[in-house]
Design goal:
The chain has about 140 residues and is α+β, with helices and mostly antiparallel strands. It has helices spanning about 10-15, 25-30, 55-65; strands at about 35-40, 45-55, 70, 75-80, 90-95, 100-110, 130, 140. The protein is globular. It has a four-stranded mixed β-sheet with strand order 2-1-6-5, covered by helices on one side. The chain has a two-stranded antiparallel sheet with strand order 3-4. Strands 7-8 form a two-stranded antiparallel ribbon.
């Protein structure tokens, strides 16, 4: 099966490593005025997700204290959790040395913040799989 024929569920919850090395090319073509944002839980230090921001999203984040991003798939401002309640209270914003990426330190309002769920139906964080360094196989840390 070609990667383009994968279902969202197979990609997001499967155990086969299928990295999208073309993602940044797509983002640049569709949304040229964005930079990546690493989002980290201020309490646990866990990396929650990587998103994108533009000037408007950054300004709204700082003004409201709620992490706001630019949705590269919908081409619109995206307040994480606006519909699910899984909002991120923005505590700090860090800028890298080249000023081409950011780190948001956030406090999630709900512990499980990803739209994927484990076998018990519980929400989890986006980084719930690990690559086994010996086999190259994905391991599910929160099945």
């Amino acid at each position: 099966m070609k990667d383009s024929q994968l279902s969202v569920k197979e990609l997001e919850e499967g155990n086969e490593l299928r990295l999208d090395f073309d993602k940044l090319n797509t983002v640049v073509k569709q949304c040229p005025d964005v930079i990546p944002v690493a989002v980290q839980n201020a309490r646990t230090k866990e990396v929650i997700l990587i998103a994108y921001t533009n000037k408007d999203a950054l300004e709204k984040s700082i003004k409201t204290g709620i992490a706001t991003f630019w949705s590269t798939s919908r081409n619109e401002l995206w307040v994480k959790g606006a519909t699910s309640g899984n909002i991120f209270e923005l505590k700090e914003v860090y800028v890298n040395c080249e000023q081409n990426s950011l780190l948001y330190m956030v406090l999630p309002k709900i512990d499980g913040i990803c739209h994927t769920h484990n076998s018990k139906g519980e929400a989890r964080n986006c980084y719930y799989r690990r690559v086994n360094m010996k086999t190259g196989v994905l391991e599910n840390l929160n099945p």
